[in-house]
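Worked Example 4.2. Consider the chain below.
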Amino acid sequence: MEADISFIGLFLQASLLVKFVMLTLLGLSIVSWAVILQRRKLLTAAKTDALKFEDKFWSGVDLNKLYQELSARQDSNTGLEALFVSGFKEYARLNKLNGRVPEAVMDGSYRAMRVSLSRELEKLETHLPLLATIGSTSPYIGLFGTVWGIMNSFIALGAVENATLAMVAPGIAEALIATAMGLFAAIPAVIAYNRFSTQVEKIEMSYANFMEEFSSILHRQAYSEKEQA
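Applying the procedure from the previous section yields the following structure tokens:
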């Protein structure tokens, strides 16, 4: 009797559709955990890299030297490094063309950083909608498997004159496993999505603050160069 009501036993006794639902939920759970681990690693690295770059940026390093250093490995620049490189590059380019018009130089530099910011946020938000989808749909998929399993159990009981608890229990347990698996897939996905979304918002705020501060520095530098010209 123990073997009959074990997880594996109930899975083997389940109908083909319920088995398909269980396997689908298992697959979604595996995908969800893979995304969670990957996103956690990426967001942790993004926060760490941002802090390191800010420490270096505000240490008094020469901006031209910092730009040359980062430009040498431009393909690997991410986060604040990418924002700095794109903004300073556009500033230097426009300053040669419109050195007497600081407003044009600043507008172009800020737009370049905004584009870079959008690209960086896109990287950080990758796969987050997938977590939200898994979190919102998994319970319903599991519920569908449960409803189908219970329906089959009652149909089978209708053909029996004397139904007992021992006859009903395996079918009900088999059906409820689908709901349990749906919740098992959904709960970590929802928690991770909410947590990662909050982290992305904080990182976005830190990026935006850096953009404003860096723009102020470039603004002062642009007007200083204009006065010296």
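The two ends are 92 Å apart (CA to CA). Residues 165 and 206 are 60 Å apart (CA to CA). Compare this with Example 4.1 before moving on.
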